[in-house]
Design brief:
alpha/beta; FAD/NAD(P)-binding domain; 2 domains; 7-stranded mixed β-sheet; 5-stranded parallel β-sheet; 6 helices
Length: 297
């Protein structure tokens, strides 16, 4: 378990920009994420201020990473699987352990795409969910399934064990790839999925390509890694139109949680992400200093 003043989820421009401002405020900061996000696939950026020649997204983030490290920012390559509240702040669950902090900045990109499986859209809100912490309670004593094959899927399965009669991870034809321990009470089915079926407009189970049927009363989508929206929903942070709601200072409705970049629904431009990161970093710094002073008084 690691303790820091500020934890930032996201290693892209918004997260690194926020980290730089928090570090320059004299606070400890840890940035965590698997990769740099959408910019890793960006060829050349021609409209970023200060560059006479086009610059690659990779080079831009590498420069920001080096700058952050020079200021003492710790950058951790790990997958964030969940977030929760503790007595004096927040706790991040990652594939490399837990991180406790006074303030949390969500700066990952846009939410993951929904799986292209027949029935997903049809049964959303009718037995199909995207958040175990939010909706697990409604499946007490029922059989549920988690769709995914990584750390995030296993984390959601562990959350559901507290409520459900049985939990099955569905990898949809892929191997289960996780750094986390698989509990004996969690089943894994690797068969390819054909469709989600229901009765009376509510989920009744999974039909596999083989024709076999798995009866479940709830399905939780947990593909890929947890997005900022997933973490926000788990914490009770307000969202709208597939984005995290913030005020002009990057603060959410939950004190101590801030957001910046694409996850806020802002214009998907590097310059905007950097600016939002700077604002969120400054606001978070003021919040942390006040929280630390109050805890020591």
């Amino acid at each position: 378990m690691k303790k820091t003043d500020c934890a930032i989820v996201g290693k892209g421009p918004a997260g690194l920009s926020a980290a730089i401002y928090v570090a320059r405020s004299g606070l400890d900061v840890t940035v965590v994420g698997r990769d740099i996000g959408a910019l890793s696939g960006s060829d050349l950026i021609e409209n970023y201020f200060g560059f006479e020649e086009p610059v690659s997204g990779q080079a831009l983030v590498e420069g920001g990473t080096a700058q952050a490290k020079r200021l003492g920012v710790e950058i951790l390559t790990a997958e964030v699987t969940g977030a929760g509240m503790i007595d004096d702040g927040f706790q991040l669950n990652t594939s490399e352990g837990t991180i406790e902090c006074y303030a949390l900045i969500l700066a990952t990109g846009l939410p993951r795409k929904k799986p292209s499986i027949e029935g997903v859209k049809e049964y959303e809100g009718s037995g199909l969910s995207y958040c175990a912490i939010c909706d697990g309670f409604f499946y007490r004593g029922r059989d549920v399934a988690v769709l995914g094959n990584g750390n995030y899927a296993l984390h959601e399965a562990h959350e559901l064990m507290a409520y459900a009669a049985s939990v099955t991870i569905l990898t949809n034809g892929r191997d289960l790839s996780t750094d986390l321990k698989l509990d004996d009470k969690i089943s894994v089915n690797i068969d390819p999925i054909n469709r989600i079926e229901g009765v009376d407009d509510y989920v009744s189970g999974i039909r596999f390509s083989s024709g076999e049927f798995l009866p479940v009363q709830g399905i939780f989508i947990a593909e890929g890694a947890a997005s900022a929206l997933d973490l926000a929903n788990g914490l009770g942070v307000a969202t709208a139109m597939n984005a995290i709601e913030t005020d002009k200072d990057g603060a959410t409705n939950l004190p101590g949680v801030f957001a910046a970049g694409d996850c806020t629904g802002a214009l998907a431009q590097v310059a905007v992400a950097v600016g939002e990161g700077a604002i969120a970093g400054l606001t978070a710094s003021r919040y942390i200093k006040k929280a630390k002073a109050e805890s020591q008084s």
